[in-house]
Write a structure and sequence with these properties.
The structure is a single chain. This protein has 143 residues and is an alpha+beta fold. It folds into two domains: 69 residues, lambda repressor-like DNA-binding domains (434 Repressor (Amino-terminal Domain), Orthogonal Bundle); 53 residues. It is built from five helices and four strands, in the order ααααβββαβ. A four-stranded mixed sheet has the order 3-2-1-4, sandwiched between helices. β2 and β3 form a beta hairpin. α1 crosses α3 and α2 crosses α4. The radius of gyration is 20 Å and the shape is elongated. The termini are far apart. The mean pLDDT is 84.
Length: 143
């Protein structure tokens, strides 16, 4: 058995697909949340060009640190948005981004009060709205 060292080029080639998928997922979440790349980059302490490269799946220095900071920032941002939406209405409707689109309805203090998982994202959304309206409360949407 021979022990071969991996060159930088081989390492990049072997990981490009995974990096591209990971970067694209971050970019999709960021754009869905309405955040600019420059805002996120400044908030996590990196340059906009580094964040752009990360989102495109190019190798970046300290990529794990960038990924973790990015994740924390998006989670904190989402928490702030949820807090604002809960102040506007009694219920918060949060739908998964996948095709089935499972919907969770929560109240203040994030107590889950209903969940709809029919396998049909549109139907799940309609059921959640009907639930909120039927229980006498306004509602907002999580991003």
């Amino acid at each position: 058995m021979t022990n071969q060292l991996t060159t930088r080029e081989q390492y990049i080639q072997e990981n490009t697909n995974a990096w591209s998928k990971r970067g694209a997922a971050f970019k999709e979440r960021r754009t869905r949340m309405g955040l600019s790349r420059s805002r996120v980059a400044e908030s996590i302490g990196t340059s906009e060009s580094t964040l752009r490269r990360f989102e495109l799946g190019y190798p970046v220095t300290r990529s794990e640190l960038v990924a973790r900071a990015y994740e924390i920032y998006l989670e904190l941002w989402l928490q702030v948005v949820k807090d604002i939406e809960l102040e506007r209405g009694r219920f918060l409707i949060d739908q998964d981004a996948d095709e089935a689109g499972k919907v969770t309805v929560t109240m203040r203090e994030y107590k889950k009060v209903a969940e709809f998982d029919t396998g049909d994202a549109e139907l799940n959304g309609k059921l959640a709205v009907a639930f909120c309206e039927g229980n006498g409360g306004g509602y907002g949407y999580a991003i």
